[in-house]
Specification:
Elements lengths: L13 H27 L10 H7 L20
Keywords: Membrane, Transmembrane, Transmembrane helix
């Protein structure tokens, strides 16, 4: 098969065109994924939790007199 100058592929074989399309498609998927991930991430100014919640996470008081324990299974006699 001989590639003639001009035409749709500019004189290049069809395999070059399909390879370029595959490369552009991969780049498009990666760039789209990155943009979607960045759009869903919170901005630096947003607070994800309050100061009270932060103190509770590091062992502070919750404001309630409860002890967080898993429930004991009832013993069957």
């Amino acid at each position: 098969m001989v590639a003639y100058p001009g035409g749709l592929t500019g004189g290049r074989p069809q395999s070059v065109r399909s390879r370029n399309m595959a490369i552009f498609s991969i780049f498009g998927v990666l760039a789209g994924s990155w943009l979607l991930f960045r759009a869903q991430s919170p901005s630096k100014e947003d607070k994800l939790y309050t100061q009270k919640e932060a103190q509770t996470m590091v062992g502070g008081q919750t404001g309630e007199n409860k002890i967080a324990r898993a429930p004991n299974p009832e013993r069957k006699a």
